[in-house]
Amino acid sequence: MRSRDEHGSSAVEYGLLIAGIAAVIATVVFLLGSTVRDTLFDPGCDDLAGHMATSGGGPSSCQE
């Protein structure tokens, strides 16, 4: 009877590793997504909307 060589990883193990990493990324994005959006993107969007409104070229807020 031949013994199996069990060195190295199989495709199933790589798939489980990728699924675990994807779950961690999705959890972090879900938990921190609104904080990052409010901190980084909303001030810039409001600033840009203010510049566009004063030049008459667009909406006065990011929600429009």
Automatic annotation (TrEMBL):
The chain crosses the membrane at residues 12-33. Keywords: Membrane, Transmembrane, Transmembrane helix. This is Flp family type IVb pilin. It comes from Nocardioides conyzicola.
